[in-house]
Amino acid sequence: MARSQSEHCSGIGRSVSKIIVTLIFSALLSLTMVSGSFAAIDTYQFDNDELKDRFHRLNEELRCPKCQNQNLTGSNSPISRDLRAQVYRLLNEGKSDDQIKTYLVERYGEYILYRPKWSKHTWMLWLAPVLLLAIGIAIVTTIVRRSATTTEQAGQTPLDASDKERLKQLMKQTNKAGDDN
Fold first, then answer.
1. Residue 147: its pLDDT value, please?
2. What is the pLDDT of residue 4?
3. DSSP letters of the chain?
């Protein structure tokens, strides 16, 4: 009897050990997940609010070349930090927004712009949504027309007065049978 009780206690000890190891592992995992939130934040000093607004607008309009569909503002990658610093430098040099965009497009290609300019290389980007919508409307229209023709070809005709009266009588009988149960 004493032996089974000691086995029971050692089983509890093993369970407690597993729980403690799991808690420690979870705590370490949590620390590694939040460590990225303590990353350095870029701070820039601007001479006026217009320059500051242009800086933020440009960073919203420019895409990080490394990240998957993120703008410069939303990315913490090293290239995004460098590009934000470059935009800041170019703004302080007195460059216009178009000059800054042109400068970056020359180095990184049209991909860096969220709204690329219309050109022979980007026409598909601009027309694809319209073309897909037109194709979708054509498919739906074709399906609806085929469905209407199939219904007409099936020989379905509207009910005449005698058929409607017969249908009413059948529905009354069905309702009475349902009420009786």
1. 81
2. 53
3. -HHHHHHHHHHHHHHHHHHHHHHHHHHHHHHHHHGGGG--------SSHHHHHHHHHHHHHBBPSSSSS-BTTT--SHHHHHHHHHHHHHHHTT--HHHHHHHHHHHH-GGGBSSPPPSTTTHHHHHHHHHHHHHHHHHHHHHHHHHHHHHHHTT-----HHHHHHHHHHHHHHHHHHHH-
Rounded Cα distance, 80 and 86, in Å: 10
Measured CA to CA, the distance from residue 76 to residue 81 in angstroms comes to 7
b/e code 119-144 from CB counts within 10 Å (16+ = b): eeeeeeeeeeeeeeeeeeeeeeeeee
Contact 127, 81 (CB under 8 A): no
Looking at residue 172, its amino acid is K
Q: Which residues of the chain have pLDDT under 50?
A: 1, 38-40
Q: How far apart are CA 125 and CA 117, in angstroms?
A: 10
Residue with tokens 């934000």: 84
Q: What is the pLDDT of residue 39?
A: 47
List Cβ neighbours of 76 (8 Å cut-off, separation of 6 or more): 36, 39
pLDDT for 74? 84
Q: Do 78 and 72 contact (CB within 8 A), yes or no?
A: no
| Per-residue confidence (pLDDT) for residue 151, from 0 to 100 | 60
